[in-house]
Amino acid sequence: MTTVAAPYSGTALDRVDGPEKVTGRARYAYEHAPDDLAYAVVVQSTIARGAVRVVDADSVLQLPGIIAAIWHENAPRVAPIEDAELTVLQSPRVAYRGQVVAVVVAETIESATEAARLLRVDYQVEPHDVELRADHPGMYRPDHVNPDYATDSELGDPEAALGFAPVVVDATYTTPAQHHNPIEPHATVAVWDADGLTLYDSTQSASAVRATIAPLFGLPPESVRVVSPYVGGGFGSKGAPHAQVVLAALAAKQVGRPVKLAATRRQMFAVTGYRTPTVQRVRLGADEEGRLSAVVHEAFEQTATVKEFAEQTTVVTRMMYAAPHRRTSHRLVRLDVPVPTWMRAPGETPGMFALESAMDELAVACGIDPVELRVRNEPTVDPERGLPFSSRNLVACLREGAARFGWAGRDPEPGVRRRGRQLIGTGVASSTYPVYRLPSQATARAEPGGGFTVKIAAADIGTGARTVLTQIAADALGVAPAQVRMEVGDSALPRASVAGGSSGTASWGTAVVRACEALTDVLHRRAGDVPPGGLEASVDTAEELRSQRPFSRHAYGAQFAEVGVDLDTGEVRVLRLLGAFAAGRIINPKTARSQFIGGMTMGLSMALFEESVMDVEFGDYLNRDLAQYHFAACADVRDVDAFWIEEEDPELNPMGSKGIGEIGIVGTAAAVANAVYHATGLRVRDLPIRLDRLIGGAV
Amino acid sequence: MRPFAYERAADVRSAVAACAAGMADGAGAVYLGGGTNLVDLMRLGVVSPGVLVDVTRLPFDGVEETAGGGLLIGAAMRNSDLAAHPLVRRRYPMLTQAVVAGASGQVRNMATVGGNLLQRTRCSYFQDVTKPCNKRAPGSGCPARNGDHRNLAVIGQSESCVATHPSDMAVPLAALGAIVHIEGPGGSRKVPMPGLHRLPGDTPERDTVLEPGDLITAVELPPLPFAVRSRYRKVRDRASFAFAVVSVAAALDVEDGMVRDCRIALGGVAHVPWRAERAESALRGSPATEAAFAQAADEELAQATPLPHNAFKVPLARNVVVRTLLDLVEAS
Ligand SMILES: Cc1cc2nc3c(=O)[nH]c(=O)nc-3n(C[C@H](O)[C@H](O)[C@H](O)COP(=O)(O)OP(=O)(O)OC[C@H]3O[C@@H](n4cnc5c(N)ncnc54)[C@H](O)[C@@H]3O)c2cc1C
Ligand code: SF4
């Protein structure tokens, strides 16, 4: 594959939608206000398992301004699609605390909120089970793990190899449930008219929302339009539609008026997804020089009873390091909990915390520098698939990162460096993320008055996708970015894949390049003449993607952390984070840097703060606001920096790019945990690294 | 919509009268400060007063000097203004440090001194009306005891409630023995800290000794010359914008290596800002050494009765008391 000439790709173009956003002209889902709008507020179940017995709608219908109360007995029927998270209000069953059991629609948000509070719902209560344990009797082997990886893998005889290995690390790590908390809550405005259904939605894929919602209401896809030009973050929680989209549409249908529905921050802790907690056992067998003979990584996770989501936690271990004997597995238990989903680098994020912590433990056990240990175990081909890597610059990231971080001469002795009342330590971890590319369509259009419009139902969820696609299109058309207008975020545009799996730029960019090339051809044939109606060319990349050559394609990185741990209090502060990444060609250094350091900041949060606390007695996540669900405040983010290594990889896509949206979070938590070990001599295997996990120990 | 009346009081008498009238109506009436806690709790349905009497326009928003070198702080003063006041900074540095360690700049710009003292616990069961909680719904039970209590009390809690008082500002006020000025339907009175807040006992619904309709008008800081060397140390789960896990306010008067006088109060450990009287009396007259500080802290914390998930607060509090006192010795 040849990559396109790229005068604009690689430049730090300012966000093309910056002015709209900072002047408030960019309209987000909740800001749409069609005529005759009504407001819906959900009622959530207060039991974790059982059934709704009675909904006393009369108690609220007399209140001023109330239009309707909708619950399973009077809700419009939807088609029984497989995704039971979306077939809301169709049955009395309650599968988790916080599940939506009714919706109240009113003239104002205040009336609807008050009626939702007053609506009396009686339940038949059943005992619930919400506690994840690795030895839970309900553990089962899912058919596959997200999105469609084999559940388990095995090569050689890992048990025997572990038995023979002179050095063995055998440790169990846990990560808690985490909630995405994008700053814009999930919101939908639903409007029915003669043509069908229009949804103003906050989503990572207008095309996917349309494809999912249309059959639910027995509509052909053309009859549903999803408009989502601006999205205030998603992190995976808006990757697929959640209940609120269906509820808005149901309510609008029921009352015959447009309906607006937003999840509140507190509701988001039950109804818009989260990352499953994990229990992970990692066993590494190595010789005295740290060369791995065996790698075994087993994950235990939860899913909901209404829907299975199997996080691919150990899949990354199949590719990371060379070792002849290896096994990975995933086991799930269905609990009476909300439905988990994708959250920034699902699989890699929790998985690499465990693997990269274990690698650090191995480095300590062997007395080898942890950078060197990783270099020694660098595979020449993908260890389980046997495929060549399209490019793999982990070693370069480790080496260059170590040089810039000042790793050389690091004394491995833990617990011996002091600065005032702080113990100081440094840690390293590898990072990686797969290269995904999904089929998409795009249309490029030459406008009669000059200039070009490029259309694709891509999603800019704050990443800068609109800007980067503008650069890609400009290069493919051979014009300046100012000549190109990108239209994204609308299902009426050519169908595009989800803003997920760090695949957006690669997938949409391919379609944009091909559409622009096709348009250039047409223009060429017409000697540049644009008719009064304009000229268009449309493409679909499905065929091109099918003929992709077999390679193991991944981005790599190395994360370096320096921490200070207060001797008296156990408070951990990350003093420095440096990420080195190799992710193909970087199309916009400005937006890329934001993705890298944003991901690293989220990784810092994961290491030290983020934790959704399950209330075992009542069965919900307790800390349902941003005063209680902690992520890094500005004061926690002191010195976070990222750089990248230029990579030429012709096996990727016309831009030569790899995804960068997720890799920044991968490995960060392990780097921090490893630094905490180096600082204190305490190995914290359970995230987050709260001060109470250190206070009883060395400090 | 849940209607409530909003009244803006112009003077103390009319404020107290408006509140009393609201209560007489049976609607429930409360004073409104910056609203940073009250309005949140109204949104959550934890409280639903029928009348809000806004007291932020009362002429109590400044600092006056009292005879003898103390200060009288108006109850309507904003937290930011309090922290920034030059006399507060000079005479009671631990108070400034405590206030700026709390919440965020935006919240502090809204929050008042009176409201800060009377903010409610951050126990998550208290905030969730779908769950039992003796403080919110007396007699319904205390799920925190067997549930999530990592950040709740280790001293002075009861079977019926293990909540903590979350204020940072109240901790140095307890250490200083600040005097709370109150106007109520029955007249005016003064309550010295830490006596404003009460232990939960079997009536955890009552956070303080205030009666319904009592208005805090001012907080008086008694003169305490050695408080010029005082310090507030807050331990928290992130570097800013988090409530204290444990905090300590301390002032130390050392002469010739001996402790002549001291004030110590702890935050994040009890239903009240906890004045460490045992530690104080153990220290008075003892050498200003790490060993003596540790022994004093141990004597105070001997009364602790922690729960399984907050036992760490006891060694943590000990470490922080010792370190803060040592820092004060070093600074002097
Ligand atoms: C996200 C967040 C983080 C926070 N973090 C911290 C923190 O780290 N540390 C900390 O200490 N605090 C913290 N706070 C709490 C904050 O300090 C309090 O909300 C604030 O001080 C309350 O003051 P207010 O004037 O807004 O009170 P209001 O909310 O107006 O009132 C609180 C209570 O006091 C009563 N009241 C108010 N004034 C009077 C008066 N003059 N007389 C009698 N009764 C009165 C009200 O009726 C009400 O019951 C945080 C708050 C938020 C929202
Ligand atoms: S500790 Fe107090 S506030 Fe918390 S649940 Fe128990 S009674 Fe309620």
Would you give an account of this structure?
Chain B: GO terms for molecular function: FAD binding; oxidoreductase activity. The complex is a heterodimer of chains A (699) and B (332). Chain A has 699 residues and is α+β, with helices and mostly antiparallel strands. Chain A is 25% helix and 25% strand. The model of chain A has no long low-confidence stretch (mean pLDDT 97). Among the domains of chain B are: 5-54, Uridine Diphospho-n-acetylenolpyruvylglucosamine Reductase, domain 2; 231-331, Enolase-like, domain 1 (2-Layer Sandwich), CATH 3.30.390.50. Chain B has 11 helices and 12 strands. Chain B has helices at residues 12-24, 38-43, 79-84, 86-91, 93-100, 105-110, 113-117, 170-176, 277-283, 290-301, 313-331, and strands spanning 5-8, 29-32, 51-54, 63-65, 71-74, 179-184, 187-192, 215-221, 230-236, 244-255, 258-267, 274-275. Chain B has a 5-stranded antiparallel sheet with strand order 4-5-8-6-7. Chain B is globular. Classes of the chains: A alpha+beta (699), B alpha+beta (332). At the A-B interface, helix 3 of A face helix 11 of B. Bound molecules: flavin-adenine dinucleotide and iron/sulfur cluster. Flavin-adenine dinucleotide is lined by residues 30-38, 55, 75, 79, 102-103, 107, 110-112, 114-116, 118-119, 166-169, 215-216, 243 of chain B. Flavin-adenine dinucleotide (FAD) binds next to strand 2, helix 6, helix 7 and strand 8 of chain B.
